[in-house]
């Protein structure tokens, strides 16, 4: 399995959610990039966020954000020298 462009867009959107409070969410506006709007809708349809235009993370969403952050951090560090 590989990451599709849709998956990457969804992961990038998940990384935009605030991680400091469960009481904060995001709003994807109607004039946002079409890929962002579509990613938000897909996350809603999968039960990862509470509203089609963002809202809050569900329990599954919180778990996925943690994993997405681990992946993003791993890819942002250079490989050790050999």
Describe this structure in words.
- The chain has one domain (5-76).
- The protein has helices at 5-14, 34-45, 59-76; strands spanning 26-27, 49-51, 54-57.
- The longest helix is centred in the last third of the chain and has 18 residues, at 59-76.
- Helix 1 (5-14) packs across helix 2.
- A 3-stranded antiparallel β-sheet has the order 1-3-2.
- It is mainly α and 82 residues long.
Briefly note the structural class of the backbone: mainly alpha
Radius of gyration from CA coordinates: 14 Å
| Average predicted confidence as pLDDT | 93
- Helix fraction, binned, reads 40-55%
Sequence of strands across the biggest β-sheet: 1-3-2
Record field, number of beta strands:
3
Between the first and last Cα atoms, what is the distance in angstroms? 29 Å
Helix-strand layout with pairing:
Elements: H1 5-14, E1 26-27, H2 34-45, E2 49-51, E3 54-57, H3 59-76
Antiparallel strand pairs: 1-3, 2-3
Entry keywords:
single chain, 82 residues, mainly alpha, 3-stranded antiparallel sheet, 49% helix
């Amino acid at each position: 399995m590989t990451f599709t462009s849709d998956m990457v867009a969804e992961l990038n959107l998940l990384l935009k959610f605030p991680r400091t409070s469960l009481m904060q969410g995001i709003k994807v506006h109607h004039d946002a990039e079409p890929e962002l709007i579509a990613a938000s809708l897909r996350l809603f349809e999968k039960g990862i966020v509470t509203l089609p235009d963002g809202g809050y993370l569900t329990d599954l969403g919180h778990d996925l954000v943690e994993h997405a952050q681990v992946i993003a951090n791993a890819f942002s560090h250079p490989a050790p020298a050999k």
